[in-house]
Amino acid sequence: MSTDNWWYQQDGIQKGPVKSQDLLLLLNQHFITDNTMVFQQGMPGWMKLGDIKHAMLYGPAGESSYAGPAALGNRKDWLTVLLLCFFLGALGVHRFYTGHTGIGIFQLLTLGGCGIWVLIDFIMILTENYRDADGYALVRK
Question: In this predicted structure, what is the pLDDT of residue 28?
């Protein structure tokens, strides 16, 4: 069985297998969304397409396939980032933790953009729109 086979759930029905490019085509044509649950052999379980889309597009060595469970293991915890932003956001600690070193240094020197940048980051984290330096969504554990 090919490792490029994907299954997805639509209206409670499991569909597939489909190839990566076909899955992304369905997404681009709005037949499925980032909230669509997808699965591929080797994954720990069903996941939201939006949470693994980056890994699908930019797998190891630039291959266009899912990077595997190891790529998902490095993802940062949502609550940890939220708390770091709330308590140490003016020092940019949450940015360092998520791999945004350059922005973290800038926030450290400007005390979080006088608090405005920290507030924006905090809202982005709360609304689950914040990404780590690799483009992955934060994980709620």
Answer: 78
Does 93 map to a domain? Answer: yes
Closest CA to 134 of 60, 84, 80, 34: 60
Contact 101, 95 (CB under 8 A): yes
DSSP symbols for 32-60: S-TT-EEE-TTSSS-EEHHHHHHHHHS-G
Domain match, 12 and 35 both: yes
pTM greater than 0.90 (yes/no) = no
Lowest mean pLDDT among 44-53, 96-105, 115-124: 44-53
| DSSP structure class, residue 94 | H
Strand, helix or coil for residue 17: strand
Number of domains composing the chain: 2
Same domain, 10 and 69: yes
Q: Do 50 and 56 touch, CB atoms closer than 8 A?
A: no
Torsions phi, psi for 9 (to 5 deg): -110, 130
> Domain range spanning residue 105?
78-126
* Average confidence (pLDDT) over 17-33: 83
Q: Are the C-beta atoms of residues 91 and 70 closer than 8 Å to each other?
A: no
- Are residues 64 and 83 part of one domain? no
